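TL;DR need structure tokens for one chain.
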Amino acid sequence: MKVSEHAVDNSVLDELSSFAAAVLRQAPSLGDSMETIDEAIYEWQVSGNPPEAGGLGQSELIAFYGALWGNEIVRLHGWHWANLTFHEFNDWTGRAVVSPDGSLFVLPFAHIHECLRGDDEVKITALLGAIGSDVIPPLEAGSYTNLAHNIQRILPRL
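>> reply
TL;DR here they are.
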């Protein structure tokens, strides 16, 4: 896959984290654990109704959940935020978290959008558990494999 990686400015990352913290202050019931986020997005996907979030719109909720999820991957696994441009898809650019060697990435915001459209299953906690485990075989550095599109839940959601 032809992908270009571009650094995200630290001020943008600070704004993203500040936004997520502000949302949590405004609507603490949203929670910030990955299990809570996974379940909230799943319920949203199934019901079509977003979580009660003190007046936040859909795009703001997706930004909130995506920021928390991406930051958790960065914190736990040493990945980094980047803007990826996908040249084989009309130069579409998305904000991603990328493994240190560029072999894997997750597009938190885009994945949540896909889930809400019904194009993919919600697997936030499954992806977090897969990173760094032997579930993922060694991949070529710089191969930019979309982890969310290549991991399938083998056990049903309870």
